[in-house]
Sequence to fold (69 residues):
Amino acid sequence: MAGAKIPDDMLPTLFEPFHRGGDRPSREGLGLGLFIASEIAKGHGGTLSVTSTDNETVFTFEMPNAALV
Fold:
């Protein structure tokens, strides 16, 4: 399913808890999903990041390989 680009001004706060953008006020939710996912990544020494363009939005999870550490 295609969607709209995440506005650039929303990207810095996308992973903050209880933060919801005003672009879709009819959507329900607590604003915790991306925060929780980001905290899980951090808890395992990794990161969760996002890039969003007019063509696609990509969330990237990176975690160090424990065998190489």
